[in-house]
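Lab notebook, bench 4. The sequencing result for the construct came back, and we need a structural model before the next group meeting so we can plan mutations. Quick request posted to the team channel:

Model the 3D structure of this chain.
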Amino acid sequence: MNRIPKKAYTTEFKELAVKRVSDDEAIAVVVKELGLSDQTLRNWIKAASEGKLKGASTKVFTPEAMELS
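Done. Here's the predicted structure in token form:
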């Protein structure tokens, strides 16, 4: 079964998306404009409220490692 690789977002991108919602922009609008899923943005909002919002892993993957995974 082929898995779709997760997209990696920077902490800054996540913070900006969360800020748009905290500035009273509708979640539906933000997810549509940024190409996110509703649940992803809600997870980021929750993580931000808990002080746990982090960006993409700093781990570097080679193309070979990506293919093996």
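The chain has a mean pLDDT of 83.
Will bring this to the meeting.
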